[in-house]
Structures are given as C-alpha cells and as structure tokens.
Design a protein that fits this description.
The protein has 520 residues and is mostly beta strands. The protein contains three helices and 32 strands.
C-alpha cells in the first residue's frame, strides 16, 4: 500500500503541474475540458498502480511426508493368540500390554504372518523401514526373526533379535536394491518367527506393534498457459464548446498620437458560449485485478473552443480595423496499459493399485450338531491360484471327538495333474495332512474342496476345530499362507434309560375248614 500511495502522490503532482500549465496557457477559458483530461490521466495512473501492486506471488510446493502401512489382516497365526492377531498390532502408537499377541509356550519355529494396509508407490527407493516392538515372559531365552514379504516373495529380513522381559523397539531399513524389489505396495506382509530355549518357567514371546514407513508420493503440478481473458476498461469523455451568439465587440478609440498616424483600437470581444461536455466511462472489471487480468484504460478527451470576434471601427480620418482572434485548442490523451498473467495448475494423480484377492482356507460347515456315531467336515479353499500342493494341521478336543480318517477332495487334481497324499501324522489332539501334484498342466484356480475329515463321537459337548500351519503352493513351488477360518462340532448323543419289569408270582395259602358232627 505504501507503493500505491507514492505512485498516487506522484501522479497528483503531475496533474497539478499540468493544470497550472494549461491554466496559464488558456487563461481558464476551457476549464471543464481541462478537468476531464486531468481526471482521465489520474484514472489511467491508478489502474497502472493497481496492476503493478497486486501482482500475485508464487509459492513453492509443500514438504513431503511419510506413508505408514500397518497390519490389516491375518495370513498365518501359528501358535500365536489371540486371533485375529492384526487388530492387536495396528495402533499408531504402541500400547504394549494393552493389546498384544503371545506365542505358544516355549516356542520352537513358531511363525505368524500379517498383511499390511495398502500405500501408494512412493516412486523412490529411499527411507523404507520396518519397525516392531516385542518382549518375553519366563526365564528361558526367546528370539525373534522378522521378515518383509510381497506375497510369497521375500523382500528383506532383520537380524535375529533376543528379547528381554521389558518391551523393546526393533527396526530394519531396506537397502535401495531391496526397496526396488517391491512392485505392489498393496500386497506387503510381515512374518515374525519365535524360538526359545526352555527354562524352569514357561517362556513366551509377545509382540504389540508393527509398522512399515515409506516416503509420501510427491505431488505433480504442471503450470500450462491456456487462455487469456481480456477485460477492458474504457472511460471516454468528450467536450465541445459551440458559440451560439455572434460576439459583440466594444471598440475604444485611442487618441492618434502614439503609436502612429493610424489609431489602434482596443477590442474586447464578449462571446457567449454554450458548452455541452459529455463523459461516458464504461468499465468492465476483471477481479481485483487478479492474476489473469487485462486492463486497458483508454481515456480520450477532445476539447475545441472557437470563439470568433469581429470588430469594425470608423473614425476621422477613416480607419478600418478587423480583428479576428481564433484560438483553437485540441488535446487528446491516450494511455493504454496491458498486463496479462495467466497460470493454470494441472495436478496429476496416481491411481491406487487394486489388491489381488487373498486365498482363504476354511471349515465347512463352520458348525454342526450330531447325535450319530460319526461326523464329517470339508476343508475348502477360496481364491486359489495355480494350486499344486497344500498342507494343514487340524486340532480338535479328543474328549469329545476321535480322529477316524481324512481323504483328498477333487479340487487339487481337477486340471489333470497326478495327486499324491501321504498318510497323515497324528498327535493326541491334532493331525497334519498334505497332498502334492505332478504334471505339465497348470494347477486349478478359484474355490473347491481340498479334503474331507471324518471324526467319531466320544461324549456330549462342543469341540472347537482349529486350522494352523496352512500352506498353499503353486506349480512354480512358491508357497503362500492363506487366511483361515475355524469351526466346531457339537455332540448330543441319545440317552439310554433302563426300565424294570414286575413279574407276578402265585402263593398258596392254607385255609382251615370247620367240620360239623351230628350228635344223637
């Protein structure tokens, strides 16, 4: 604003000088026309000052930040609990024992794997870091091995970490070569495996928090000049002085003596003028004035004054003098200022990649009730891709159910590959079953039955059915850990009631019979 005031002061000073010059030149005869010219000059100067003073400034792009991927799904749970695991690990700030997951007792190669939420490809291989926070219980030694996967492909791994009984933060940063291996930021997973050496007290590993940090994707701004709006400000003023009555001169004769033999009359013309000034400013503003404005002030002023005086004086000796003063003044001021600034910002966005469907293995039906001697369930897969082999462990309550047998379903060999299924391995409360295939055909895709399991019923009650250590392998021998779903079987055996039957037994009873004797 200080600059505007200075420019206006400078313009007004020039106007005062112009007024003084015009006044001295024209003697104030055409003051209305002069005023109009000066006003137009001031308006043109003000428009220039506004365009210069309000020129927009440019600013830089905001600093980029970070993106965080945190657990959002379970791929494998192992012996860790409680499920679901991911929602105990996804907080932005670790809350330690408030939400945590725990390994099996005295764990030996006990893994879990969680999927991470999707982030955008940062277009950079720098600043990729995996962080997690863990502790242990018991007096044995507990260690963790952490790895970052994209699908079934290993991207990077941490060194083995030894846990203490207090929570600790661990992290590992990817090299640029490891970061360049990532091609799909919506299919990243973290796998952590616990090991221990037993002590006198049961040892467990505990994890409370996991996250992956990558750079924010930089914004793209492309300024592209495209169009030039041209608003115009055109103030126009015209003034015309038109004499309507012939002037009547007054002649005063000076005695002839000086300057010579002829008399010099003094003529005072008295014109009567009717001036009709008209000013028509037309303004089309374009903003204030805005970064994309064109301001064209075109002031035009024309002032014409033509007073004509004619005087004829006759004296003795006879002298004739004709005086015709014809002052004509024309002033045309034209100022044109054009300022054009156009900026168009075009932001280019990067589409979010589409996540690949995740395979899932579940128990069907998820729950059932039986009163018979046996019960069966199917182990089903959904969203399988090029499936060539599978393995799973199923745990049950042996006080309710007994394991009878398991057989391969029709899905694995449905494309013509040869199927081989070894006998299952068993413990008191679980069994592990696996099948592989060979052949030149591709493996099946989609959903189907992997295996059918048969149990015998032992006693009334509810037996949970839990799937663990589930692995799906494709024809390229790449293993994947799907999500899993459990189930249960309720046994209600019929009750046998014994009924006592009464048997009637006959008993003889002696009855005395009186004897009558006649007396003569």
């Amino acid at each position: 604003m200080r600059g505007i005031k200075t420019q206006l002061h400078h313009i007004s000073g020039k106007a005062r000088l112009s007024w003084t010059a015009l006044h001295d030149t024209w003697g104030g005869a055409d003051r209305p026309a002069i005023l109009i010219v000066l006003l137009l000059v001031v308006a043109a100067g003000l428009a220039v000052a506004l365009v210069v003073s309000f020129r927009p400034s440019s600013s830089g792009l905001a600093q980029t930040g970070s993106q965080f991927a945190r657990p959002s799904s379970d791929f494998a749970t192992g012996g860790w609990g409680t499920t679901p695991l991911w929602d105990k690990l996804d907080e932005a700030i670790p809350d330690d024992a408030t939400t945590e997951i725990q390994s099996s007792n005295d764990p030996i190669a006990d893994p879990f794997e969680v999927g991470l939420s999707a982030v955008l490809d940062p277009q950079s291989s720098a600043n990729h870091a995996v962080r997690y926070r863990a502790t242990k219980t018991g007096d044995g030694t507990a260690t963790l091995d952490a790895e970052l996967y994209q699908g079934a492909a290993l991207i990077a791994s941490d060194v083995q970490r030894t846990l203490t009984t207090a929570y600790q933060d661990f992290s590992f940063t990817l090299s640029s070569g490891e970061a360049d291996l990532i091609t799909n930021y919506s299919d990243l997973r973290v796998r952590i495996t616990a090991d221990s050496t037993a002590g006198t007290v049961v040892t467990n590993a505990l994890v409370t928090w996991i996250e992956l940090e990558v750079p924010e994707i930089p914004p793209t701004v492309t300024p592209t000049p495209q169009s030039t709006p041209t608003p115009t400000v055109t103030p126009t003023a015209s003034a015309t002085a038109t004499p309507t009555t012939p002037p009547t001169p007054t002649v005063t004769s000076t005695p002839c003596g000086f300057p010579g033999p002829l008399c010099t009359p003094t003529t005072t013309p008295t014109p009567t003028d009717t001036s009709t000034p008209s000013a028509t400013p037309t303004a089309t503003p374009c903003g204030f004035p805005g970064p994309a404005c064109t301001v064209t002030p075109t002031p035009t002023a024309t002032a014409t004054a033509t007073p004509t005086a004619s005087a004829t004086a006759t004296s003795t000796p006879t002298a004739t003098s004709t005086i015709t003063p014809t002052p004509t003044a024309s002033s045309t001021a034209t100022a044109t200022t054009t300022s054009t600034a156009t900026a168009t910002a075009t932001a280019t966005s990067t589409p979010t990649p589409t996540a690949t469907p995740i395979a899932n293995v579940s128990i069907e039906p998820a729950s059932q009730t039986t009163g018979g001697p046996t019960a069966s369930v199917d182990i089903e897969v959904q969203n399988a891709t090029d499936l060539a082999a599978y393995t799973f462990t199923l745990t049950y309550d042996n006080t309710i159910l007994s394991f009878v047998g398991v057989s391969n379903g029709g899905f694995l060999g449905s494309t013509g590959r040869t199927v081989d299924c070894p006998a299952p391995s068993q413990t008191a409360t679980s069994f592990t079953f696996s099948c592989t295939t060979t052949g030149g055909q591709a493996g099946p895709n989609g959903s189907g039955v992997l295996a059918t399991v048969t149990f015998g019923t032992v006693a009334n009650g509810v037996s949970p059915l839990t799937l663990t250590s589930v692995t799906l392998t494709d024809t390229a021998s790449s293993p994947a850990s799907p999500t899993t779903g459990g189930g249960s079987i309720t046994v209600l055996l019929p009750t046998v009631t014994s009924t006592a039957t009464a048997t009637a037994t006959g008993t003889s009873t002696d009855t005395a019979t009186p004897t009558v004797t006649a007396t003569p």
